[in-house]
Amino acid sequence: MSISHLFKDHPGLQLEFSPELEPRVIVETAVAFANSEGGQIVVGANANGRVMAGLQAEDADEMVRLAMVDVRPPLLLEVEPYELPQGTVLVFKVPRSSDLHSLADGRVLARRGSENQVLCGPALTIAASGRSSGTFELEEVLGASFDDFDSEVVAEYFERRRERSPRALVGSTETLLQQMGALKASGTATALGMVLFGEEPQIFLPQCGLTFVKFAGSDRRGEHGQIGYGRREDITGPLARVIERAWRVVWEEMSKQSVVRGLVREQETEYPAVAVREALVNAAAHRDYRISGRRIEVLMFRDRLEVTSPGGLPGYITIQNIVDEHFSRNPRLVNGLMQWGYIEELGLGVDKMIEVMVAEGHPPPEFKASPHAFSVSLRKGREVGQPGFVPQWEHDMNERQMQALQFVQQKGRITNRDYRNLCPHVSAETLRLDLVDLVDKGVLLKIGEKRGTYYILKRKPTGG
């Protein structure tokens, strides 16, 4: 097949030429095409049909690899090599994607005329809302119907919803399930319905379960190289039951101790209960259910708890902006868990984990992301009941900084705006440097970026 017809057109909305082999630039254009109307990238020739010698068909492998590794979700490229008298030309075909793709650094590109533009602000929000990121939720599950739902779980869900919004539910159970996307009008269950309400959803969707493993040491092997775990649980059932059963297993395995604070006796756990529950709920709500070969994994080691969910970070979310930005690949599932009461307020789970871990004397959670998995590690900063974990103040703080610390102790956090209100006659730059200094001294912990930035107390062991 000839490619001469491509040389009759100019670079535009669905066509680009890359005379030189520039993998990063080519992948950026592929992402822009996928997020727009699709297109073709001619590599090894310019728009006038002049072929640059030296290109090999094997050079396509690097672009394909980058599209799989550096793009979220991974982008599949089709390539067709053409052996011309002057040399080899590669044509990459990029279809319009139903997902919103981003690069490893978080940038989301779209094609605008003959250029790739970075989307941000309202344009990014519009693009994200316009993608069918939740299409998997509405896919029919062949062979599954309303009869495969757990009636008790369905009844519990709608009871919780009525408690939240008594007037919002009108109609039969089947009608309400159709309205939320859990059931098709034909009576066939959707993936959303099976994940939320299936009596045994793993029969149809084996991936929607969770595996818990407790290891004796700090890695997966024992001292002599043998398998080092002492307990393993494969947890199945509808999503709400998976979350609750996983929480119960972790609770059973965590060290606990009763401590007296003031006049009140409280039970202190190895890891803050709020942080553990948030990690479990987030993994269940945001995992990529299209990945069929892997379940959520909860691994408990001697020094940390790791929760890993299949699928990389969704949309334009990165490790750097995870506190400030919010995007869900499973919007209906997230809404269902929120109506159920498992998610109190959208977008605050990460903030909660960070604040409660630091407040109880542990390091902030560690987040790791790859194109195919995302994990949260809760690492111990102290043992249960260990005393002496109080804020360690420095002696060379100015009066403004002491005022800021008093504010944090009272309110739990402080923003740049709060600090400006406390010290209205001091320049914004001076106040910013005050907060930077407190972070450098280890007194405050900075959370978020740009407008969403705030600071909380960072607790240290006395004398540390």
Q: How many individual β-strands?
A: 22
Taking all Cα atoms into account, the compactness measure Rg is 26 Å
What is the terminal separation in angstroms? 71 Å
Helix content: 25-40%
Main sheet, how many strands, which sense, barrel?
6 strands, mixed
CATH class of the largest domain: Alpha Beta
| Percent strand | 15-25%
- Spatial ordering of strands, largest sheet: 12-11-15-16-18-17
Which word captures the global form?
globular
Mean pLDDT: 84
Number of helices: 13
Do you know the CATH topology of the largest domain?
A: Heat Shock Protein 90
Count of distinct structural domains: 4
| Known CATH architecture of the largest domain | 2-Layer Sandwich
Unreliable runs = 388-394, 460-464
Overview of this protein structure:
There is one protein chain. This protein has 464 residues and is α+β, with helices and mostly antiparallel strands. The chain folds into four domains: 4-130, Schlafen, AAA domain (Methyltransferase, Cobalt-precorrin-4 Transmethylase, Domain 2, 2-Layer Sandwich); 135-203, no CATH class; 210-330 and 340-379, 2-Layer Sandwich (Heat Shock Protein 90); 389-461, Arc Repressor Mutant, subunit A, CATH 1.10.10.10. The protein contains 13 helices and 22 strands. It has helices at 23-34, 60-69, 121-130, 151-164, 173-179, 191-197, 239-253, 273-286, 331-340, 349-359, 399-411, 416-422, 428-440; strands at residues 15-18, 39-43, 71-72, 78-84, 87-94, 102-103, 109-112, 115-118, 140-145, 188-190, 210-215, 229-235, 256-261, 264-269, 296-300, 304-310, 366-370, 373-379, 389-390, 444-447, 454-457, 460-461. The strands form eight sheets. The protein has a six-stranded mixed β-sheet with strand order 12-11-15-16-18-17, with helices on one face. The model is unreliable at 388-394 and 460-464 (pLDDT under 50).
